[in-house]
From TrEMBL:
Name the record gives this protein: Uncharacterized protein
Native source species: Mediterraneibacter hominis
Top-level taxon of the source organism: Bacteria
Length: 214
C-alpha cells in the first residue's frame, strides 16, 4: 500500500479553493443544466450561509462537548458497515441526530499526524469532521439552512421545468462552516482525499486529477 507523503499534502493544500467547490458542485444530479451564473450563485450563497452560521455558534463560546450535549447529538466512531451508505469515500454521516465518523479515516490520519501537522498546521481531524456533520444537523432542524436555502428552476427536458435545491450547496456550506469553526486555512475536503489515498491511491489520484481539470 502506497502512503501519502508531505509533498502531496502540500500540493493538495495549494489547490485553489474554487476548484474544490467546483468539484463538489459537479456532483449534483442536475449540474449539467446549471448556467455559469447559477454555479457562481450557489457557491457564493452556500459559503456565506456556512460562514454566518459558524460565527453565530462561535459567539456562544461552546466547545465540542458542549455542542454535542446542547443539541442532543449521538456521536460515534464507526466501522464502514455501520454507515447507511457505506462506500470508499464516505467518512462521516449525519442522520436524525446521529453522527458517525469513520474509524478508518481517523486511524489513517492518525498515522500521518506529524506529516499533517507540518503541512497543514495544528488541528484535530475528528473536530473538523464533527463540525461538518454538525452543520447538516442544523440543516435538519432549521429549514432555512437546508442546502443553504437555495432553489433554482431547471429544464431537464425541453418542455419540463423542475424546481431543485442543490445538495452541493449544503456540502459547500458545511465545509465552510467547519473551516470557520476550526479556524483552518485549508479546504476540509483534503482530509477525505488523504484518508482515501491510504488504501485506494488510484481512486484518490483520479479525484485529484479531475479537480485539477476544473
Amino acid at each position: 500500500m502506497d502512503s501519502i507523503q508531505g509533498d502531496v499534502i502540500s500540493y493538495l493544500k495549494a489547490i485553489p479553493e474554487e476548484k474544490w467547490d467546483a468539484y463538489i458542485l459537479r456532483q449534483d444530479m442536475f449540474y449539467r443544466h446549471y448556467t455559469e451564473e447559477m454555479c457562481a450563485g450557489i457557491v457564493q450563497k452556500a459559503k456565506e450561509t456556512g460562514r454566518r452560521k459558524a460565527f453565530e455558534i462561535l459567539e456562544e463560546g461552546a466547545d465540542i462537548k458542549e455542542l454535542i450535549r446542547k443539541y442532543g447529538l449521538n456521536v460515534k466512531d464507526a466501522e464502514d458497515k455501520e454507515f447507511i451508505m457505506p462506500d470508499s469515500i464516505n467518512f462521516a454521516e449525519y442522520h436524525d441526530g446521529n453522527i458517525l465518523i469513520s474509524k478508518r479515516l481517523l486511524e489513517a490520519l492518525s498515522q500521518k499526524k506529524e506529516i499533517l501537522r507540518e503541512a497543514l498546521g495544528d488541528f484535530k481531524v475528528r473536530d473538523i469532521v464533527f463540525c461538518h456533520e454538525l452543520y447538516h444537523h442544523f440543516e435538519d432542524i432549521e429549514a432555512h439552512l437546508e442546502n443553504a436555502g437555495i432553489t433554482y428552476e431547471v429544464k431537464p427536458l425541453p418542455f419540463i421545468k423542475k424546481k431543485i435545491s442543490p445538495e452541493s450547496a449544503g456540502e459547500i456550506a458545511a465545509y465552510e462552516f467547519a473551516r470557520q469553526m476550526q479556524k483552518i486555512d485549508f479546504h476540509p475536503y483534503i482530509l477525505g482525499i488523504i484518508g482515501l489515498y491510504e488504501y485506494k491511491k488510484e481512486t484518490a489520484e483520479k479525484i485529484i486529477e479531475n479537480i485539477m481539470k476544473l
